[in-house]
Specification:
With 389 residues, the chain is an alpha/beta fold. Helix content is 41%, strand content 11%. The chain is built from 15 helices and twelve strands. The strands form three sheets. Strands 4-11-10-9-8-7-6-5 form an eight-stranded parallel sheet. α1 runs antiparallel to α15 (331-362), α4 (89-100) packs parallel to α15 and α12 (257-265) crosses α13 (287-298). The termini are far apart.
Length: 389
């Protein structure tokens, strides 16, 4: 067993074990991948203020996200095709999150279904939905989430039009995947991964196949996927989803203060400052740079969370210090899952927790709720998106 001390250790194992098609899906961004890179690199521009001779006994990372107690303010983000990173991947990730004490968010485009995850877990999880045209499918999706006792829905609002991801197009990654000769040859080299996949019946989109009208098998999925997303999405539609759901709603994909205000107006319990991990609008700013203006606009009206770019507990701390109430990890837990299954997700959470706890202590704070801008050295212009840094 290799010694794992950082997320990059898991990534190295992940890249050896998982087929290139699914690695590229998880790791790549859109177009030039500028936003993908800056989501990560902009965290390093924020420096930490060290404090000494402060009593650090009895410190805690515990907090709440949308009223739910969490061991640390980190949720597992919704990641499509998680069950192709590791067999039954959504179930494994949900179990790891449950045992650690953080939220798990299941994607609509998951391999394991809502019912699969509910059957194998005890703690309520969150369910992510896209803004699709089919009212009947959407209502039944909400009904299924209620039956599974999901405690919140996460509405992704930045995917009504798909961004161009060069790697996915070249690999034939679609729903369902279109295998190329190169991808088939690569799949053949991933023997442990392949044996795991042979051992599960969950290989297709469990929330869609057999549930969406006209999608009775994987071969009919592509047509539905191409037509399902709603390019006419507006805030009235999101308010309608809130009414249909009737429970807690998180709106994910907010990058501008005006959109944050609109999300608050339609009844969001939380918003997620997110650029879809750099997978949609390339050239958009990083989420950590977008966060301060959004906090100023709605931080006293709605709970603000952040995703995209978090690879360490220090990144989590910096987001919290700038005002976020919670954070999400996507690629970081995916690396763990692909590397070592459920144990790998647990390890990823342990790594991030240890980094958060130790950094908090070295900054002289005992509670995550006490973190603030006083813990950071912020470069001039970082908060002002009109000023280059």
């Amino acid at each position: 067993m290799p010694v794992i001390t950082e997320i990059e250790d898991l990534r190295r194992i992940y890249r050896r074990r998982v087929p290139k098609m699914f690695r590229d899906y998880a790791e790549s961004g859109s177009w030039t991948q500028q936003t993908l890179r800056e989501n990560v690199s902009d965290f390093s521009k924020l420096r930490l203020r060290q404090r000494v001779a402060v009593d650090m006994a009895g410190r805690s990372t515990a907090s709440t996200m949308i009223g739910e107690e969490v061991a640390m303010p980190v949720a597992l983000a919704p990641v499509g095709l998680t069950g192709m990173q590791s067999a039954d991947g959504e179930i494994k990730a949900a179990r790891a999150a449950e045992r650690f004490g953080v939220p798990f968010t299941l994607s609509t485009m998951s391999i394991c279904s809502i019912e699969d995850v509910a059957k194998h877990t005890k703690r309520p999880f969150w369910f992510q939905v896209y803004t699709l045209k089919d009212d009947d499918f959407m209502r039944r999706l909400f009904d299924r989430a209620r039956a599974a006792q999901c405690s919140a829905i996460v509405i992704t609002v930045d995917l009504q039009i798909m961004g161009q991801r060069h790697a996915d197009l070249k690999n034939g990654l679609s729903a369902p995947p279109k295998l190329t000769l190169a991808s088939m040859l690569n799949l053949a080299t991933k023997v442990p991964w392949g044996l795991e996949m042979l051992g599960t019946r969950r290989r297709f989109f469990g929330n869609i196949v057999g549930h969406a009208k006209g999608v009775s098998d994987p071969s009919s999925l592509a047509t539905w996927t191409n037509q399902a997303f709603d390019p006419s999405l507006d805030w009235k539609r999101i308010a309608q989803f809130k009414e249909w759901w009737g429970g807690k709603m998180i709106v994910k994909g907010i990058m501008e203060p005006e959109d944050a205000r609109r999300a608050a107006e339609v009844g969001a319990d939380a918003i997620v400052v997110s650029n879809h991990g750099g997978r949609q609008l390339d050239g958009a700013p990083s989420t950590i740079r977008a966060l301060p203006a959004i906090m100023e606009a709605v931080g006293d009206r709605v709970e603000v969370h952040l995703d995209s770019g978090i690879r360490s507990g220090q990144d989590v701390l910096k987001a919290l210090a700038l005002g976020a109430k919670g954070t999400y990890i996507g690629r970081a837990f995916t690396y763990g899952l692909g590397a070592m299954g459920q144990q790998g997700v647990k390890t990823a959470l342990e790594v991030i927790h240890k980094e958060l706890d130790l950094t908090m202590a070295l900054c002289g704070e005992r509670r995550v709720g006490d973190l603030g801008r006083h813990n950071l050295i912020i470069p001039q212009g970082f908060d002002d998106l009109t000023v280059p840094i």
